[in-house]
Write a structure and sequence with these properties.
Layout lengths: L3 H19 L6 E6 L4 E6 L2 H4 L6 H9 L1 H9 L3 E5 L5 H9 L4 E4 L10 H6 L4 H5 L2 E4 L3 H14 L6 H7 L2 E2 L5 E2 L1
Parallel strand pairs: 3-4, 4-5
Antiparallel strand pairs: 1-2, 1-3, 6-7
Helix pairs in contact: 1-8, 3-5
Amino acid sequence: MFTDIDKFYLKMALEEAELALQENTYPVGAILVDDQFKVIAKGRNGVHTNNDATAHAEIEAIRNAGETIFDAKIHNRSFTLYSSLEPCPMCTGGILFAKIQRVVWLLNDDLGFGGYQKMKDAAIFEKKFDRIEMIAEPDEELKNRQLELMHQWEKSSNHVSHLRKEVSLVLPSGGEIQ
């Protein structure tokens, strides 16, 4: 069930995504909240900012939660992860192993690296997925705001299409990689 509280935290995730875009990196933000609706951690994509392929928003939020994640696993506390974009396979793995019980995101990413739904549909880690409530694209207005951030990202100098144009490697056979 989607609530006004969910919308509040999704707006926070969007704010993190906007900051990521301002830092010239992929616009994704994530907020980790406990069962008392307290923000445990925030994260935003930092792949280009940190030169770290694993610095995705959801992973950063889980990392930033630190010891709280382990304490929650021991005491069976519940967490919700709010993300502005569907988690990729790496982030989905982080969600599963951090025992997050609820995931809410603004925009499906079936054309990009969105992996949560694909992994769930593949029936791997079924028991882990079965204990997680998933809410995808619950708010049209906020979804459209994330979609606009994605369109702005396409114009970024760090977008892969622009980086590939800048780099051209000549192969020994005379072919080119772009």
